[in-house]
Amino acid sequence: WSRWERGSAGRSAVFRFVVPSIPSISLVGCCFPDSDVDPVIRISSGYYGEIVVDPETGAVLRSQVQYDLQGFVPTERSDITVTYAPVAIGGNTYVLPQKSVSISRERSTKQLSEWNVSVPTWGPYETQMNVFTFDRYHAFQTASRILPGLPQMPGTNNPPRSTPPH
User: Fold this and answer.
1) Which of 21, 23, 38, 52 has the fewest CB atoms within 10 Å, i.e. is most exposed?
2) CB-based burial of residue 13 (10 Å sphere; 0-12 exposed, 13-18 middle, 19+ buried)?
3) Is 69:91 a contact under the CB 8 Å cutoff?
4) CA-closest candidate to residue 84, choices 67, 96, 100
5) How far apart are CA 28 and CA 110, in angstroms?
6) Do 17 and 49 meet the contact criterion of CB atoms below 8 Å apart?
7) Contacts of 135 (CB under 8 A, 6+ apart)
8) Quick check: 60 and 53 in contact, CB under 8 A?
9) Contact 107/124 with Cβ under 8 angstroms?
């Protein structure tokens, strides 16, 4: 537990977490620009963040993750935040994602061409932000019944079983 936070829905509990780098889990980044073998870069990176919870219902209201990318040349930053809120669908209320914001800062790759030779190389760092909003939710529901006994299959010699009256 880290702290209490006051928002539009009232008081929320903030929990912080830290996950150290684990060699068996790798983050895939792009790319060594001049590699002849495998241009994809794989590193093992830890991460940390927060989860914000409504103390009355236990519903998650926000989650944030920031990767610890110190020394990872192609990517300086990779963060994501997702906020959640109650949504009424078909007479029921569900806590669902409302907005997601991700920010990354990565080196671009450029092609240098001189004297009929093209050489890929690192370009400048570029910051990118993706914002997604979630709306127009729909509930997909179905109903089923399990009936005792097996019906007789047409064209088979299965004897009919007694079934209870409807």
Assistant:
1) 23
2) middle
3) no
4) 96
5) 20
6) yes
7) none
8) yes
9) yes
- Residue 27's region, left for phi above 0, alpha for psi from -120 to 50, else beta, is beta
Q: Six-digit token pair at 60? A: 């998650």
Nearest CA among 105, 104, 112, 103 for reference residue 33: 112
The Cα angle at residue 68 between residues 64 and 69, in degrees rounded to 5: 125
- Decide: 52 and 14 in contact? Cβ < 8 Å: yes
Residue holding tokens 């991460």? 47
Over residues 97-135, the pLDDT tens digits come to: 999 999 888 877 777 788 888 777 777 888 889 999 999
How many angstroms separate the CA atoms of 83 and 61, rounded?
6
Residue type, 3: R
Task: Retrieve residue 87's tokens.
Answer: 């949504």
pTM recorded for the entire structure: 0.66
**117, β-bridge pairs:** 114
